[in-house]
């Protein structure tokens, strides 16, 4: 990890600290939705690949 990576993380952390609870929650919900949809796509891919059907 470079110094620039650490600086970037630090800036993001400070940004989160300055946000309201509602903003942090909204950001969390947004990233959770993205994460779940990509995870589901991954699962579907492997189910098709191996021919699993539940």
3D structure, described in words:
- With 54 residues, the protein is an all-alpha fold.
- Helices cover 85% and strands 0% of the residues.
- The chain contains two helices and no strands.
- It has helices at residues 3-18, 21-50.
Summarize, please:
With 54 residues, this protein is mainly alpha-helical.
Order of secondary-structure elements = HH
| CA-based shape | elongated
Task: Supply the number of helical segments.
Answer: 2
**Terminal-residue CA separation:** 42 Å
Q: Main sheet?
A: none
Oligomeric form of this entry? single chain
Protein name: 1-aminocyclopropane-1-carboxylate synthase
Organism: Jilunia laotingensis
Q: What labels would you give this structure?
A:
mainly alpha
Topology:
Layout: H1 3-18, H2 21-50
């Amino acid at each position: 990890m470079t110094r620039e990576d650490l600086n970037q993380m630090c800036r993001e952390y400070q940004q989160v600290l300055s946000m309201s609870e509602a903003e942090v929650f909204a950001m969390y919900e947004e990233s959770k939705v993205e994460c779940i949809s990509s995870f589901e796509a991954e699962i579907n891919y492997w189910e098709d690949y191996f021919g699993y059907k539940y």
